[in-house]
Amino acid sequence: MHTTTKTISIGNVNIGGPNFTVIAGPCSIESFEQTSTTAAWVFQHGATILRGGIYKLRTNPSSFQGLGSEAFAIIKNIKASTGMPFVTEISDPRQLEDLNEISDMYQVGSRNMHNYALLKELGHTQKPILLKRGFCATIEEWILAARYITDAGNPNVIFCERGIRTFETATRNTLDLSAVAVLKQRTDLPVVVDPSHGTGVRTLVTPMALAAAAAGADGIMVEVHPQPKEALSDGFQALTFEDFEILIKKLKPLLAAIERPLLSKGPA
Ligand code: PEP
Ligand code: MN
User: Fold this and answer.
1) Is pLDDT of 267 > 60?
2) Which of 5, 123, 127, 247 is most buried (most C-beta within 10 Å)?
3) Is the CB of 53 inside a 6 Å radius of any atom of ligand 1?
4) Ligand located closest to 107 CA
């Protein structure tokens, strides 16, 4: 049983230790306007790390695949104005050179948790890695996937529970919050929960984010969009700006009750 969680620095922000960290942003970077307004809002209300997909892994090859390199200038600009560290998914080691400059943490998506060549390559960097759970992976397989990174020399791994595939159809995935408690007993690495992909339903994101905090997660990652109906990916699960504000308002007393300060850099 591990009683302390390791603290990992992502740019000027820590995940792990006593703090609770909120990662927020759009599913995909779509435009400067869309991402900059979202970043400003979530930063103002308590998020400290910005998320956003650039190279999207979509189930349907006809779906929006992300802006790719067109997103780089957008992210550089927003990082310079907000100072927020940025996390984006890396799906291929060939993206390392480009993403190294703009990404403060690399996300390994659910579909790539078993991509051991990618994991080993990321193990040769020192960047923090947000390792999402494979949607059909057991916790044991997930821990072993993390070891591909740590054994290759990079100790900076953060687990991200994002739901698993079950027979249930009311939600997009089944968010396995018991994984948080299991990981806390079996590793000293931080654990973040993604209730956006974990439920796939906007109105379920806030209740499950609160449940994640109560279960002992070190943070959450949520999708936010200025106009979810217009989103090019995952609009059905994106929080509106108002939803995000309400989520943080509800989160604060809960975190106070469990004595975990919200790591907030915004003025809110
Ligand atoms: C994402 O976070 O944008 C994403 C695609 O998540 P997952 O890999 O969990 O499906
Ligand atoms: Mn998404």
Assistant:
1) no
2) 247
3) yes
4) 1
Determine whether the shortest distance from the Cβ of 88 to ligand 1 is under 6 A. no
Q: Which two tokens stand for residue 68?
A: 């790719």
Q: Does the predicted TM-score (pTM) go above 0.90?
A: yes
The pLDDT confidence band at residue 263, using thresholds 50, 70 and 90, is confident
Q: How many of the other CB atoms lie within 10 Å of CB of 98?
A: 15
Calpha distance 55→96 (Å, rounded): 12
Burial tier of 250 (Cβ tally within 10 Å: 0-12, 13-18, 19+): middle
Under the banding of pLDDT at 50, 70 and 90, the label for residue 4 is: confident
DSSP assignment of the chain: ---S---EEETTEEESTT-BEEEEE-SB---HHHHHHHHHHHHHTT--EEE-BSS---SSTTS----GGGHHHHHHHHHHHH---EEEE--SGGGHHHHHHH-SEEEEPGGGTT-HHHHHHHHTS-S-EEEEPPTT--HHHHHHHHHHHHHTT---EEEEE--B--S--SSSSB--THHHHHHHHH--S-EEE-HHHHH--HHHHHHHHHHHHHHT-SEEEEEB-SSGGG-SS-GGGPBPHHHHHHHHHHHHHHHHHTT--B---S--
Write the pLDDT tens digit of every residue in 10-24: 999 999 999 999 999
pLDDT digits (tens, 9 = 90+) for 68-93: 999 999 999 999 999 999 999 999 99
Cα torsion for 206, 67, 127, 3, to the nearest 10°?
Answer: 10
| CA 200 to ligand 2 center in whole angstroms | 9
Q: Is the confidence at residue 45, as pLDDT, over 50?
A: yes
pLDDT at 200: 98
